[in-house]
């Protein structure tokens, strides 16, 4: 990759990340705002990423790869899964604007990202080890649905709810043979 292209790519990703991190409503982060914040033309963004959904998926996949590693095996598959899902919950709180933008964008389906596929595969493996392979793939999707950004956002506004305690109960019930 040419040096200027790589520099522009990093500037655009940093700009969209900063704007989404600061946004009250991530849908209001426009390509014009990203271009201005990155100090590039809008055409540079479209040539480098194609569209807003791809730009958001690229940033999401980079942050997931950097920050959301699968934890080492714990005392049990359920403990490892709980540690992983707690990390996902915390990640989605920290990157609220980005994860909401990804999940709201029809083309940017969170189910079609490298990060989601890696998390799903890890949970499927843990469930298969704990309870056998029957329904493991579905149950892994269901567990990941419990940490969707729209739910994280909704529960952020709901007083008296302890989402992490609920997540712990869900994981332990799901992992029973």
TrEMBL record:
InterPro entries: Homeodomain-like_sf (IPR009057), HTH-type_TetR-like_transc_reg (IPR050109), HTH_TetR (IPR001647). Residues 6-67 form the HTH tetR-type domain. The keyword Transcription applies. Residues 30-49 bind DNA. The keyword Cell membrane does not apply. Keywords: DNA-binding, Transcription, Transcription regulation. It comes from the Bacteria. GO terms for molecular function: DNA-binding transcription factor activity; transcription cis-regulatory region binding. It holds the Pfam family TetR_N. PANTHER family: HTH-TYPE TRANSCRIPTIONAL REGULATOR BETI, HTH-TYPE TRANSCRIPTIONAL REGULATOR RUTR. This is AcrR family transcriptional regulator. It comes from Catenuloplanes niger.
């Amino acid at each position: 990759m040419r040096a200027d292209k790589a520099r522009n790519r990093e500037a655009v990703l940093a700009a969209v990340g900063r704007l989404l991190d600061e946004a009250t409503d991530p849908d209001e982060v426009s390509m014009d705002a990203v271009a201005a914040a990155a100090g590039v033309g809008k055409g540079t963004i479209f040539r480098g990423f194609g569209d807003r959904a791809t730009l958001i998926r690229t940033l999401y996949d980079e942050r997931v790869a950097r920050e959301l590693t699968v934890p080492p095996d714990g005392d049990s598959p359920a403990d490892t899964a709980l540690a992983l899902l707690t990390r996902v919950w915390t990640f989605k709180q920290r990157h609220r604007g980005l994860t909401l933008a990804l999940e709201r964008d029809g083309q940017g389906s969170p189910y079609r990202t490298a990060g989601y596929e890696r998390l799903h595969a890890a949970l499927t493996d843990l469930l298969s080890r704990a309870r056998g392979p029957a329904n493991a793939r579905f149950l892994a999707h269901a567990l990941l649905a419990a940490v969707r950004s729209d739910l994280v956002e909704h529960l952020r506004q709901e007083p008296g709810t302890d989402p992490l305690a609920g997540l712990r109960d869900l994981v332990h019930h799901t992992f029973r043979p």
